Amino acid sequence: MLYHATTPFNDQKPGTSGLRKKVQVFQQPHYLENFVQSIFNTIAAPAGATLALGGDGRYYNCEAIQVILKMAAANGFARVMVGRCGILSTPAASCVIRKYRTHGGIILSASHNPGGPEGDFGIKYNIANGGPATETITEAIYATSKTISLYRLIEAEDVNLAKLGDTKLGEMTVSVFDPVADYADLMESLFDFAAIKTLLAGGFRTLFDAMHAVTGPYAREILINRLGAAPDSVINAIPLPDFGGGHPDPNLTYADQLVAALYGDNPPDFGAASDGDGDRNMILGKHFFVTPSDSLAILAANAHLAPGYKNGVAGIARSMPTSAAADRVAAALNIPCYETPTGWKFFGNLMDAGKVTLCGEESFGSGSNHIREKDGLWAVLFWLNILAVRKQSVEEIVYQHWARFGRNVYSRHDYEAIPTGAANGVMQHLHERFSDLTGTQLGSYKVLYCDDFSYTDPVDGSISTGQGVRIGFSDGSRIVFRLSGTGTEGATLRIYLESYEPDVTLHHLDAQQALQELIGIALQLSELRQRTGRLQPTVIT
Ligand code: VG1
Ligand code: CO
């Protein structure tokens, strides 16, 4: 049977990065099919089109791939390129879409959200430039999902995803390919592998934590096979459907095994971790944590040290809540710095237009125009390349950066899974305060502006509103409040805190200590404790 009757679900609205729901929601009859058909109806791929397909290996990955393959065949795709065993990291998917000029790609992932039968599943569509579908497209997919009445799927045997090579599924070709090779080759073309090899051979010790998620096979091939890192320097390297019961989010809370090693006795010189789908990164030195906002700024300031960026950087873009550390580097390099809403989909147009080379988010994401996604291992290799050339420690590099540019002290406080009503109440309350806050003195801070961030894309003119409440102070400090668009339980409220410290004698201060007064102001202004009953954040990064 080719045509299957269905009725719409009303909750298939993609968030910051695709559609994310509990696995049980995706397992409802027709739920996955409805959303995939909505994608296919929206993109209207021409005859002969190729699709890239794969995921982060989480629970339900392979079942979903078999369904999507049969739907692609019924919808007239000529070919689907699927990663062996259904594995394809988000950055590798972006690489493959671009290299083989596919019409687009479907990536099965809920990124840093936990997996397993009780965990989350997700699906995102990437367009021909290799990047996440723009908001215009995701809104159209959502609109289609609300009126859908049939989907197409052929009856066929499941495809053997473990065997490399081409097979036929109806009229369509399924090409099972090695998900690592093209990506590893791309990395080798950007960074000085010889210099990194020499660094590692000289006793410099690294530790990479793949968190039982998708980057394990990539890290093994690149770090161990191609760069000669010690075999035990990549941990938790086998992708597991439930990520070993963990939360594949590379931060100081969830990457606890890596953090224990880097903050323990005789630590490695460099530590890093990536998330479920391989697009995030955390960078650590000996007893030292590099904030993602600082990491972006440091990569930009040192980009010329990596062969792929030897001619410099055309521009930088950062998401609004990300600290202004990158802005200071852009000013020094005399290049533009763009401020976009949260989510990688807003960077694609800027990169396609040649306006920016490097992009980053405070949420452990950085990347460049080599692909159109953020890229975890790319950031790790970029750091190793810089360390190999500068021959200093991670900590020395960061302190020297602060001495030159000043330090944008930064932290994010997340309040997860709070009742949606209470979270909306906090945001509503903040909106109501806009008119009387400007110009007021709060402790040692004077409010310069408060608004709800909206963005006009300089390339296609599209407008995105309601992207987060910003309260800016006269000394450049900032508090930002935003509701997450990736959670699957209640609402997650994020508070982003930033202050600028030019005084080099204060650069060693702990961020929570340095931001103490701002944290108090944020809690008082938002009435968060009274409205949610939460006295402490769930996660601090
Ligand atoms: C979060 C981050 C955002 C990131 C997004 C997807 O979104 O804050 O910066 O782009 O996750 O990352 P939100 O709406 O929950 O704040 V990933 O690694 O999930 O693809
Ligand atoms: Co991710």
List the helices and strands and how they pair.
Layout: E1 3-5, E2 19-22, H1 23-26, H2 31-43, E3 50-55, H3 61-74, E4 79-87, H4 90-99, E5 104-108, E6 120-126, H5 135-145, E7 150-152, E8 165-169, E9 172-177, H6 181-190, H7 193-201, E10 206-209, H8 215-226, E11 234-235, H9 256-262, E12 270-273, E13 282-285, E14 288-290, H10 292-302, E15 316-319, H11 325-333, E16 337-340, H12 348-352, E17 358-361, E18 365-368, H13 376-390, H14 394-405, E19 407-418, H15 420-437, E20 441-442, E21 445-452, E22 455-456, E23 463-464, E24 469-473, E25 478-483, E26 491-501, H16 511-514, H17 516-526, H18 528-532, E27 539-540
Parallel strand pairs: 3-4, 3-5, 4-9, 10-11, 10-12, 15-16, 15-17
Antiparallel strand pairs: 1-7, 2-6, 5-6, 8-9, 12-13, 13-14, 17-18, 19-26, 19-27, 20-21, 21-24, 22-23, 24-25, 25-26
Helix pairs in contact: 2-3, 2-5, 7-13, 10-11
Bound molecules: alpha-D-glucose-1-phosphate-6-vanadate and cobalt (II) ion.
Residues 90, 111-112, 275-277, 279-280 line the site of cobalt (II) ion.
